[in-house]
Amino acid sequence: MPSKYMQLAKEIIKNYGTKGQFGCVSGAGNVRAVHAEEGNLRVEFEVEKDQSNHFNTLHGGCTSTLIDIFTTGALLLTKPARPGVSVDLHVTYLTAAKIGETLVLDSTVIKQGKTLAFTKAELYRKSDNVMIATGVHTKAFPTVKKAN
């Protein structure tokens, strides 16, 4: 029986795969959850043509979007499950990933407080564990003021 975190992870991935949303354009629709626990989400996917640049490698913007999506997914696997809003996203690109290669994206919540959360991600090639990119993502939880 899948853990409650794995069930939540599959639902998060399903929602990001919705046509007409930017996450779907970035290829989140072909992602599979392979590990989920509180504050950690690991997914894998094959690089597809619509995720590539003119060199037939994973597009940097797609990489950033996937890191954004799945570090947020890791936050949704915590209590309270809050997605927050991005304050800072820093991605370091280390090498290219070719169309057809299977990649693993491991996202972790480093620290979460009342107003901020800090997350990190590692994107690597599954076949040889070569790191493709790393990311750190800061999210804020602003107070929502009700209109009069």
Walk me through this protein's architecture:
The protein has helices at residues 4-16, 22-25, 60-76, and strands at 32-37, 40-46, 85-93, 102-112, 116-125, 131-140. It has 148 residues and is an alpha+beta fold.
| Proper CATH architecture | Roll
- Average pLDDT works out at 89
Number of helices: 3
Q: Report the CATH C-level class.
A: Alpha Beta
Fold-level CATH name: Thiol Ester Dehydrase, Chain A
Whole-number count of domains:
1
Core attributes:
148 residues; alpha+beta; Thiol Ester Dehydrase, Chain A; six-stranded antiparallel sheet; 36% strand; globular; ACOT13
Quick take:
Residues 55-131 form the Thioesterase domain. It is found in: Cytoplasm, Cytoskeleton, Spindle; Cytoplasm, Cytosol; Mitochondrion; Nucleus. With 148 residues, the protein is of the alpha+beta class.
